[in-house]
Amino acid sequence: MSRHIAGDMQRYNVRPNCISPFAWSRMVGAIPTDTPEQQARVEKLKKLGTKQIAPLASDAAADVTAQIFAVHGNEIFLMGQSRPIRGMHTSAGWTLETIAGRVLPAMKQNLYPLESSNIVFS
Predict the structure, then answer these.
(1) For an engineered disulfide with 77, which of 37, 70, 81, 83 has Cβ 3.0 to 4.6 Å away?
(2) Spatial distance between the Cα atoms of 71 and 49, rounded to a whole number of angstroms
(3) Does 33 have pLDDT greater than 70?
(4) Domain locations in the chain?
């Protein structure tokens, strides 16, 4: 979440928050259900609604801005903020080759592993 957007828009009473729901939606309906494990995961998601999300986007949260929330059924999580953890610079500019040859190898140890939500949330 960009703190710049939150700061710039504060005078207009705009509160940019990010709400990441774990709930049934058309987008979730596109999750593959080829295996019994995938089918079970989607069936669990079908039981999660969106009614818990509305208060986070209402006047009840008027003093909350630049935050990231995850809503999973009856659980609400305040998520960590993204911050740079590694940077690289070149005065010559980046090319496909220099990114592939320098940046990606240098940052590989800092990449986050790909995890599905069922590993993180019970």
Answers:
(1) 70
(2) 10
(3) yes
(4) 1-81, 83-112
- What is the predicted pLDDT for the residue at 118? 66
Do 16 and 6 meet the contact criterion of CB atoms below 8 Å apart? yes
- Whats the size of the chain, residue-wise? 122
Burial 33-48 (b: 16+ CB within 10 A, else e): eeeeeeeebbeebeeb
Q: Give the mean pLDDT of the chain.
A: 81
DSSP assignment of the chain? --HHHHHHHGGGT----EEEEES--TTGGGS---SHHHHHHHHHHHT--STTTGGGGSGGGTT--S-EEEEETTEEEEPPPP--------TT---HHHIIIIIHHHHGGGPPPP--HHHH--
Among residues 26, 27, 7, the alpha carbon closest in space to that of 15 is found at 7
Q: Which amino acid is at 65?
A: T
- pLDDT computed for residue 3 by the predictor: 62
